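Our collaborator T.R. sent over the components below with a one-line note: 'Predict the complex.' Nothing else. No constraints on interfaces, no templates requested, no preferences about which chain binds where. So this is a plain run: every listed entity goes in together, and whatever single assembly comes back becomes the starting point for the next discussion.
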Amino acid sequence: MSATPPLDWAAHFARLADSARDPRLQAYYRAGAPAADTPLNELPLLALDVETTGLDPQQHAIVSLGLVPFDLRRIRCAEARYWVVKPSSELSSESVTYHHITHSDIRHAPALGQILDELLTAMAGRLMVVHYRNIERGFLDQALRQHLGEGLSFPLIDTMELEARLHPKRQPGWLGKLLGRQPTSIRLADSRLRYNLPPYTAHHALSDALATAELLQAQVATHYSAATTVGELWS
Amino acid sequence: MQIELLEIRDHLNRFPPFDNLPEDSLDAIARQVEVAYFKAGTDILLYGAPIHELHYVRSGAVEIYRRSGELYNRLSEGDIFGQAGLLRSNKVRFPARAIEDSLIYFIPGALFGQLCEQFDSFAEFVEAEGQSRLKSAVESQGKASGLIQLKVRKLLGRAPVCASQDTPVQQAAQLMTEQGVSSLVIIDTPPAGQAAAMVGILTDRDLRTRVLAEGLPGSTPVSQVMSPNPVTIQADDSVFEAMLCMLRHNIHHLPVVQRRRPIGLINLTDIIRYESQSSLSLVNSIFNQSDVAGLQSLLPDLRGTYVRMVNDQATAHMIGSAMAGIGRAFIQRLLELGEQQLGPAPVPYCFMVAGSMARDEQLLVTDQDNALVLDDRFDPAQHDAYFAALAQFVSDGLAACGYSYCKGGIMASNRQWRQPLRVWREYFSQWIEQPKPQALLNSCIFFDLDGVYGEIELVDNLKELLADKASASPAFLAALARNALNRTPPLGFFRTFVMETDGQHRHIINLKGRGTAPLTDLIRVHALACGSRAQNSLERLDDIGKTKLLQPEALAQLRYALEFLSMVRIRHQARAIEDGLEPNNYIEPDKVSASERHNLKEAFGVLSNAQKFLRFRYPGQPG
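Returned assembly:
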């Protein structure tokens, strides 16, 4: 259970639809957000992962995005999307070793602005699911500010935050430390292991999106129920 | 836009039937897959529910049930299910439940249908129920081997040179010289209008050893010096069978007949031309060795021959027969050498082998199991010292050549197993008439028996006694059946849940102890019940088939299971030799390929079902 009372995202989206200037953003907000008491099993979901040139949305930029539509029953690979985009900031060599997207990969890639249409259409009417919300939220917001002159806000379920709730005391106590216990990791790969999900290649936006979708299915199957309301999980 | 779902594509690519699909088909599947997570204990498919997708286990474990609720199969990573319903009524036939947290891929039925239509191998794999998948795995083995496909007639060059049985040997030798042949087929002189029949064979060697060396005149009729009633082979038999026949009888010339009419003659060199470094040439070298050290030096050749047969995709039956033939040759040569040292035997005897060599199912890792059956004129006080020495010589020689001493003491060097026929008949009578399962555990090895050297009739006498008495003794058969049920297949063989661990605590499956051995045990019980005199398991299955004791499908399943389990064992040993390790019978399931694992599970399933039938047929068994 999250500490803050659930946001009324549906009302917020209605206001944003009115105040947005860009027609694509207006269309996105008009598709609406679910009411907080909607059961999870009725919700169309969209797992999203972005790979970036660094961790700070102000300085760094998106290099790839992966999307996988799903719900609690099925993950639909047929509708998955993946883009490599030309980042607005330089690729650093550290980030290249991380996500393996190189200068030659992005030479002919579109700028993010060119895929925004498709991205917003894919997102419309679906609740976003990410692992570590600060990245996806921060970078998408910043990218839209750059390309459209106005930001983007959206509700999401953060599978990492769900893991953090399940493991509130991740640091081992003094006895645990003495016994050499490691802190409980809530990183994507480590979280998946706890649900016996197979290891995947990390830091590929599409693989990570798929991995995140599977993780949410596993978390709900293990700790929640299909009737759990979205208000209990989102932020 | 190309969506790269490499995680999915690359995983499918590792498992049958997807591993044989072209890249673009794999991409197409990966692009259309749906995925779902199932917590351990949740149902995936319910009986009778509509089904429109092929299911694929990406991770975890799934149990498949019969409608009755009985466990049908246990699946793990890379296995598929749901195809039975998809192929027929689009209703679930076998319900499925996750028994571990599982990730399942769903492949749309339409795509599944396309794959079946486009790729025969895919269709065969998914349509295969039960034995048929095992069947195709077994049948692909041996296909590549030329020997089993090549008919003897293909090796025949010219028509045989024939001479009638009253031809003088000098004239016969002239004929052979004129015709440039090293052997003659000797025929009778039939009444007018009838075809002549073959009565013997005369070779260069016969002329040397039986005519010249004996100082016989050139006028001697060939009928006196020929080898009468020669072993023959049918023209349509395979070259492989010809090879086995030569191995078994240690002969170098084999007349080929069409029904009864001799149409040619093949000799060792004909086959060796096709099979250089063959098991036959090894047998030849065995007989050319003049001492134990020489025989011992052939050990690398023995292993080389074995590995080469495996790499040539010979069948388990071919390899088992060839290895048994080579083993026999070692024994025969050792006995010849032993007789040279110790002098001729004081009374006739037969050197008998038991177990896998008698069944023609020998592999590399094998004990020597042998015995001596002596003529009833045997007098222990006078003669036993000789036979004890001979037996010891053979036993030590075999051990030097890699056939380790039998831990159970089943060796002719052991006085108990060096007895006249009369005592052997008592042994067998007692085993059969007063069966005690515990005692039979030790003597069971003698229910596969074969004479290798000497007066073969002595052992044939015991074979007949066993076949005749066993089929008439329900108590004996029941005791044997009980012993045959002692060892069960590892049905728990599944991912990491293997029942045994080896000395280094690795999970292992004993392929012999939990596979081929209980299978041959079970076949032996049925064969003896049918009065079969055959020793080889496949020949025993043929005999069982004639009596309708088992259904043809059940027999076919047993045949495939035996061949497959033997082949896995054989390949495992061949790989060990190639890697410079000591071959053994233990496989680590983790290291088994996915397709081999599928077939192993099926083969173990066949064994388990056959054991159920045995228990049903001989009730009152414990367990």
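Summary for T.R.: Residues 205-223 of chain A form the longest helix (19 residues).
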